Amino acid sequence: MHMNNHIHHDGTFSSFILTLPFILALMGYVFASVISSRHHKPWPLYRTILFILGVTCAMAAVIGPLADRAHTDFTAHMLGHLLLGMLAPLLMVLARPMTLILRTLHVQTARHISSILRSRPMSILNHPIVTSLLNIGGLWILYTTDLYVLMHQYILLHILIHIHVFLAGYLFTASLIYVDPTPHRYSFTYRLIVFWMALAGHGILSKAIYAHPPTGVPTSQAETGGMLMYYGGDAIDLVMIFILCYQWYKGSWPRALKAMSS
Amino acid sequence: MSTQTVNPKIKSNDPTRYVYSARNFWSGFLFGLGLVAFIDEAVFHQLLHWHHFYDKSTTDLGLVSDGLFHAFSWFATIGALFMFADLRRRNALWLTRWVGGLLFGAGLFQLYDGIIQHKLMRLHQIRYNVNILPYDLVWNITALIMLLIGIILLIRTRQGSPQEERNASNAYE
């Protein structure tokens, strides 16, 4: 009982810390879309809507009833993981925040930022294998070691892991689906193979959780949580596979024929 | 040009479909693989509840194999359909070869699932609490029949096979 109170008290603090960046990002996004539309073509409304939906998904995982239940219920935790680590990143990547930033800033500042994007550290963070390891590897460590138990005891760890889940999910998505400016590009085949391995790693981990519950998680919750991770992950990755294949389909049509058919 | 209207056996896309012969095969093959995986998931796991999500006797290798094939089946299904659309817009679709690839892929994967995954890796059985032998026989014999028809269709649509050459020469008589 004492422990529950302890978590609940700290939960408010960690919710606040984790919500703040998303609220700031949303305000910045809407502000930039309005400002930049004065000098450029109007920023498409659907992208702003995608970003709002993405932020809503991420916030649902860190504040409110689902986040509260996630402390004690593994299935709720897993739903939060799907929202924060997969669906929110996908929606936000599709909203093209980097394109928006670059067109809003002054040319000089924008050039500076794109030179940072081209730098070596950024190219490493955009490598599909690196982002897959950060994303799927991180989850393996979280659920197969005692980290999951420790996360509920140490508030700092709780905050760090949630930030990691979102950022790793975002980098992973952005390294596979190129909609924002991407200086270091990899072929479709390369990205498809890495994506396949990552999705397999996600599926295998889901069944491993089902079979061997993480420390402190009751068997029944591990079973529903594992199945939710397996099928929920499939559903979101299906959308990503569809987008990736559609980009191949559009890109593989020779330009000359494109002009003829249109 | 006039021979095409005289002999309906020759399709108008003959030259292009030879160029894209391999893509016709792969599109069909991948779709066949994805189709079997989808039927396995939708019918045997979700509708009938015969297959189990996890079986305690599963080997670690079985878990890895299932993970790889399950993930691959989504890429195969979606990728194959985009390839199909690509063949159509290039006017290069060769349906017989595509169906040959489909049956070959479907039969091959079902045989792998039925013998390697179900039996050797003990991923899960087709159904529980029944005499499993008739189920295994139907499963694997169906797979073999698909595989054989697939191979026959693929041989008949081989580029420059006697059958095709005869058709082609008939057209210009």
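qc> The first helix of chain B runs from residue 2 to 6.
qc> done
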